[in-house]
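Internal ticket #5521
Category: modeling
Description: The requester needs a full-assembly model to guide mutagenesis choices. All entity lines are attached below as received. Residue total reported by intake: 820.
Assigned to: D.W.
Attached entities:
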Amino acid sequence: MPVRAISRAGVPHLQNQLMQCSTAAVLVVLLVSCRSKDSTLPVVPAETGQVRNSPESATLAIEKQEHIWETEHVAFELEQKFGRTLSRALRERDGDAIQAFCRDSFEACLPSSETHARHDLGHVEEDRKDALYGPGSVHGAAKFANYLQTYFKHFDEIDKVTCRVLDLHADNNDTKTGYWDVTLYLTGVGKDRQQGFLEFTSEHLLRCYFTSDKEIEIGKILDRWVVGYEVRRRASSPLFEEATKQAGLEQIDIPDNWTVARDKVRQYHTQMAAADFDRDGFCDLAFASSNGRWRLLRSIAGEKFEEVTDECGLPVWADEEPRSRSVRDQVYLATWIDFDNDGYPDLILGDRLYRNQEGRRFEDVTDRSGLVFGYNPRGLVVADYDCDGRLDLYALYQLPRTTNRDGAPGWVGDDETGLENHLWRNMGDGQFANTTELSNAGGGKRQSFAASWFHATDDHYPDLYIANDFGTNVLLINQGNGKFRDGSREAGVSDYATSMGVATGDLTGDGHSEIYVANMFSKMGRRIIAHVAADDYPDGIFQQIQGSCAGNRLYTADGGESRYQEISEDSGVNPVGWAYAPALADFDSDGQLDIYATTGFLSFERSKPDG
Amino acid sequence: MWRAVVSQPLDRTSQTEQLGEIDAAAGEFWVRSVFQMPQLGHNLSAFEANRLFMNVDGQQFLDASFASQANIDSDSRSVIVGDIDADGDVDLLVGSVGGGPVRIFLNHIPTEHHKVRIELQGTSSNRAAIGARVVLRCGAKTITRDLFPANGFMGQSPAELLVGVGQATTIDRLTIRWPNGELQELEDLPVDQNTQIVEGREGYQSVSF
């Protein structure tokens, strides 16, 4: 939970306690006021997606843009210079170096006592301490240096210490005064003497003074330091172990951005799917990539995988014509669906449907099926939507990037420039019919990335949540008569954000499914939007920007209410990053679903800063 | 990128001029159009580590990424959750665009908890029983799971019900709502088994993991 902000949990304590601790009181009041915007969750305006503003009318005033530029430059300098030297001092437990950051007027506010909260899951434990302050909390540089010097005393090996700026405001919003209020996020990971895994995370409120980049580099910039909360986590042994090499997947022929030329770098290029196609009790894998390669891997007793693409009658596509290759480049689906109910999962691979012949061979039955896929579907999700005993398909679409659109596409509010998704009803006898229009299941012209069938209502008809980029997400309620209705707004889950993925399941244990949506979380984004507010934009725009960097969202329907509540930050599952696929599973078999979530956009050089 | 989003929220194609100082020596950079960043090889939300959040009590989650070994920072995209090594717990198959396209992480969480794999076979419902809901009652605990082959982003997980039951050593009652809406109930089922149930047929068959 990296950014469980001090403002939510710690500051009420801080504020009360510090009334007696006059030196730091001013600072805390200031920090409370500047962070208060973050503590209210974005409210989706009633007219979501209906906002019609021109790009010009929504452009931020130039003075604000310049202020953000200047502040972000300072954040960069602080992280790159002060942050790195502080990290080194902490890692090396160098008290003199820590003391050298302190100006003559320096004061530290160190906890006189703490409140504790503890979670122990057996295999991993967490202790959270929120600082309390009393009259004896104010100390000078020497005591402070001693405090930080012993901060990592539980570590035997320190692998990494990082300092990040979560919030940065010039005093009185005037960058000329030289005083800056900083919320610093400090993490350390490593091992203890028993070789257990350790992680410390904490937040601190700093007041700094400097008048140039050079002064930040020299480092004598600390005027005050207020210790906030601290979270320590420990696990005796690793929770997972990598088995890629043993499984024979290390040399798999799928493109890797880190080893190809820069013009070959792709944002995404492969779809994969798992099912036990030969019913030997072990999960097999299918892949299709944008380089035109498709493959089927059979599991050998759950220990390793062998390629059986050719052996099973699936195309290996050697020496193909450029034209057929380009079609396959654009449709690289991988989905298992037992469309003929014979107990052997059939396979959609690339743009073709293959019938599984009792786990031995695959027969191309595309032409008979009537299935047609358009440009680059981002995925297929499988369920029997009309409960007629046959599995149906839902295909997710976006507009190709090369297509000209009317008007400039927006970072936010882009609800009408995408493509409808397609619902394919299984008619039996190996045939599918496109029932999108008939069923009202297109989900609007949006940029869809992923979708999840689940039970949102009490009936047995599957409902569907669709995650869209740039625009709002859609909840389609299955009415049980072959038709869907858009229930997004009444449910409060239309989620103004840039969504890439979604997962559903009963995380709270009340018998009703939650919806967990993968969005973008950005420390930089959150830092920047703390300098703008709703009245800097036409109605509705600010909330969308806020949503686009707030991170993953968890919606719960308490007791099956039709209206969902957003509990992402309270439950600590929002800070993932530029997130893609979330998955829910009970990894520790305690009867509660856990979460694994992927993240990261494009990485080029480890030593270089982020954009 | 975020400066561009905040400055011109309704124009993804906008070119944003440099409005202030840049410390190029320290690696600070600016590109007028965000979409040039990948072409120029600039990091964007780079080297972010995948997260593992363990459920504490249904309301709070513990970020156990640091001890997971599956917190790789390889621009990961898809994830499949399923019992790859068929030992009764859920493993991870992670698809990434950098640092190894497909990686497997086997579940080694030290726990004494029990579980059951429920294999449903539909007869009037679809054979794979996709869309079924199972409700397990184990003492005071009630566990609800729906059977769908999840596809969170470009990766379809197997349609399987691998249900952890914690300390429970018996499933007192299992209620299945089949995709066609019919209900079926079973009582006193053993744990740590593969349990096969056929729609409309009494009883079950089970085999140890």
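Resolution: model delivered.
Comment from assignee: Chain B touches chain A through 139 residues (CB under 8 Å).
Ticket closed.
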